[in-house]
Amino acid sequence: MMIESGKKEIKFKIVYYGPGLSGKTTNIVYIYSKFPGLKGNLVTIDTKGERTLFFDFLPIEIEIIGGYKTRFYLYTVPGQVFYRTTRRLVLKNADGIVYVADSQRKRLKDNIDIHQEMYKHLEYYGVQQKSVKEGSLPVVMQYNKRDLPDILTIEELEQQVNWYHFPYYPAIAVKGVGVFKTLEAIIKLVVKRSFEKAKTLQSK
């Protein structure tokens, strides 16, 4: 969270994390194309086989403290193995994470490996795995590609990938199914967490 007193804005960073081609970019592009409010440009950084992109938007109806507007920055990360450093950099100062898991049975190991890697990167920035489990950093799981054949059941994904029982949402991102439900969930958690932090600081 970053507060800009001059602009009367509170900025939040939400990162869409997950294995390569799981649907992270599809989520961001769909949100950008359908979002009705104020938004910035969609910035794309091309990588081999996958794109990293981000944009910011300003939901007018959300205010945390009087007179301050909230601006959210949505980022994706490249999921391929050789972009580990890029994924770590994008995670820096994240206020919330959407983990986009590929529901296809053949992608189970990829889902698990990248999920484990995510915690290692967070620990690099001093965010301990135990504290994430306890809610210090909001995380929402999205089980994407629910329309494809040979997919894992929700129960299997919950057991194998969602170790800490974060909220989850089934999705078909190419059709927009579950995309905004996932976004709304992570925004609510991020804003709630910011209130809790503010109260803690005020009580000290």
Can you describe this structure?
The chain has helices spanning 24-34, 84-91, 108-124, 129-133, 154-160, 179-203; strands at residues 2-4, 9-17, 38-39, 43-47, 50-58, 69-76, 96-102, 139-144, 168-170. It contains 6 helices and 9 strands; from the N terminus they run E-E-H-E-E-E-E-H-E-H-H-E-H-E-H. It is an alpha/beta fold and 204 residues long. It has one domain (2-194): P-loop containing nucleotide triphosphate hydrolases (Rossmann fold, 3-Layer(aba) Sandwich), CATH 3.40.50. Strands 1, 2, 3, 4, 5, 6, 7, 8 and 9 form a 9-stranded mixed sheet that branches. Helix 5 links the parallel strand 8 and strand 9. The two termini are 19 Å apart. The longest helix is centred in the C-terminal third of the chain and has 25 residues, at 179-203. The model has no long low-confidence stretch (mean pLDDT 89).
